[in-house]
Q: What sequence folds into this?
């Protein structure tokens, strides 16, 4: 299968050349590199042009007339790609040689629309920090609507079917991770993939995910301090906001289903609408566990009701998972965590 690489750039001269060289070293050569530049004022475009002169594959450069931000830049650039598969590419990472070859193999399963791989988290000088992101313990394929809708992934670890970009990205619902904004490029692809096809997870590290202090979005920390901060930040308002986001996703899939001529795809959109409406309802009920001013008895009652409804079933079965049950139980019993 042919894979286009969609590279979004903005003042990336410091690390860009290493990334470009890693593209040229792929065991499966990209069919093309499409570079979307968001108004760089440094040597970024000169570096790209020098690479294009010696590249083993075609390079096209899109110079945007205005700064759109990294998410819109990625989606605009990816929409200009011509291959059946597309790989998002950050300007500051380094790909390991087998990345595209390993990801392409996942699409031998015709149901797969997205492949996600592990990356090694490295520092500015590409020294291994020992961390891996995301955590994938084994290679496996997840069926439609069988994963968690807010799973943390990054575009730099994705290869996806170009069919996902047939839905206008101007219709993106609100982001889970970017307050006040719409879905990032990788969140959008993930949302559509979870509804319309299967997702392949590869446990082999296939890229170096560089952390240098100026990342648009970096590798998330999951230490004890981060978990405690997230627990304290959760409240009834938090879950009400998340429920609203789920309802907007449901509305998106409902409108897509109404206009979809394909019987199979329409059925998938309809399933996506039902899934996100049910998820919104569960989130609203989960908010009662964190209700401001409610006593322990009331919060525990809300928790037991939620548990009785099956809301804490495994994530691969559409639930919040057992860790969420532990978190909510702690918040129900300890007033200082309200």
A:
């Amino acid at each position: 299968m042919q894979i286009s690489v969609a590279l979004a750039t903005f003042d990336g001269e410091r690390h860009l050349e290493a990334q470009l060289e890693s593209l040229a070293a792929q065991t499966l050569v990209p069919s093309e590199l499409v570079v979307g530049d968001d108004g760089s004022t440094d040597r970024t475009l000169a570096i790209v042009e020098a690479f294009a002169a010696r590249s083993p594959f075609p390079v096209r450069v899109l110079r945007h007339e205005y700064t759109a931000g990294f998410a819109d830049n990625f989606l605009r650039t990816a929409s200009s790609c011509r291959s059946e598969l597309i790989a998002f590419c950050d300007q500051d990472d380094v790909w390991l040689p087998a990345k595209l070859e390993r990801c392409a193999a996942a699409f031998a399963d015709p149901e797969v629309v997205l492949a996600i791989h592990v990356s090694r988290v490295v520092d500015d000088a590409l020294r291994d920090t020992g961390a891996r992101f995301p955590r994938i313990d084994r290679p496996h394929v997840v069926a439609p609507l069988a994963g968690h809708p807010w799973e943390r992934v990054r575009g730099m670890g994705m290869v996806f079917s170009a069919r996902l970009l047939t839905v206008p990205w101007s219709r993106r619902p609100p982001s889970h991770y970017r307050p006040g904004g719409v879905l990032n490029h990788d969140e959008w692809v993930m949302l559509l993939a979870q509804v319309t096809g299967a997702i392949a997870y590869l446990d082999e590290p296939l890229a170096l995910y560089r952390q240098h202090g100026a990342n648009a979005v970096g590798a998330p920390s999951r230490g004890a301090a981060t978990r405690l901060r997230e627990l304290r930040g959760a409240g009834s308002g938090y879950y009400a906001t998340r429920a609203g986001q789920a309802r907007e996703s449901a509305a998106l899939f409902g409108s897509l289903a109404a206009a979809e001529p394909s019987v199979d795809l329409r059925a998938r959109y309809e399933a996506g609408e039902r899934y996100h409406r049910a998820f919104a309802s569960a989130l609203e009920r989960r908010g009662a566990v964190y209700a401001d001013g409610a006593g322990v008895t009331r919060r525990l009652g809300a928790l037991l009701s939620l548990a009785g409804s099956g809301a804490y079933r495994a994530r691969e079965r559409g639930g919040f998972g057992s860790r969420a049950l532990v978190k909510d139980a702690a918040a129900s019993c300890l007033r200082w965590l309200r």
Observations:
- DSSP finds ten helices and ten strands in the chain.
